[in-house]
Amino acid sequence: MQSSGTALRVVHEPVPGFDLAAAEHAAGDFLRALGISLDSESLRGTPGRMARAYAELFTPRAFDLTTFPNDEGYDELVLARGIPVRSVCEHHLLPFIGVAHVGYLPGERILGLSKLARVVEHFACRPQVQERLTKQIAGWLGDQLSPKGVGVVIEAEHTCMTLRGVRATGSSTVTSTLMGTLREDARSRQEFFSLTGVNA
């Protein structure tokens, strides 16, 4: 039996001029400029590992955004909680790690649930700020699904804040974006925040 769903192929556009060899060379220069000798056996391969690690962080996996007709007319909140988020702060190129809670009120179509996590990854795999990331996820789902409402909350620890500078160990940052009914209707908004475990 064939699926009645439709799929949009989502592929992250490659960074123009992506050059792993040049990145490895630059990583070596960067470490030596900070006084780190690369002569030892354990550090000799570090520039290459650094280049490959950042290439992986900046390359999301392609996926099919599969949607299905909302034949049952389901009009209650659909929420995926605790989706892992990993991204890199664009100001210091240090990681921030946490979870996203992504929900929507369906319109004419519903989304394959795993795709909510795929959309989070798609926008997280680039130098980011958490505020923009939150809005990009919500805006894209709004554009693709035309739902009655979209809500996104991200809770993350930023290592640029916990490992350096103020060194605020244990601190986390919470951002949210609400659209449509989840923004305009107080009861719907409260339900969303209650289910995410975030105090509105």
UniProtKB/TrEMBL annotation:
Gene Ontology CC: one annotated term: cytoplasm
**E.C. number, please?**
3.5.4.16
KW Metal-binding (keyword) present: yes
Taking every annotated instance into account, which residue ranges of this chain make up the domain GTP cyclohydrolase I? 24-195
Q: Which UniProt keywords apply?
A: GTP-binding, Hydrolase, Metal-binding, Nucleotide-binding, One-carbon metabolism, Zinc
UniProt catalytic activity = GTP + H2O = 7,8-dihydroneopterin 3'-triphosphate + formate + H(+)
Entry binding sites for Zn(2+): 89, 92, 160
According to the UniProt entry, its GO molecular function terms are: GTP binding; GTP cyclohydrolase I activity; zinc ion binding
Report the family membership.
Belongs to the GTP cyclohydrolase I family.
One of the GO BP terms on file:
tetrahydrobiopterin biosynthetic process
The record's top EC class is hydrolase
Pathway involvement?
Cofactor biosynthesis; 7,8-dihydroneopterin triphosphate biosynthesis; 7,8-dihydroneopterin triphosphate from GTP: step 1/1
One matching Pfam family is GTP_cyclohydroI
Subunit record text: Homopolymer.
Domain of life where this protein originates: Bacteria
The molecule here is called GTP cyclohydrolase 1
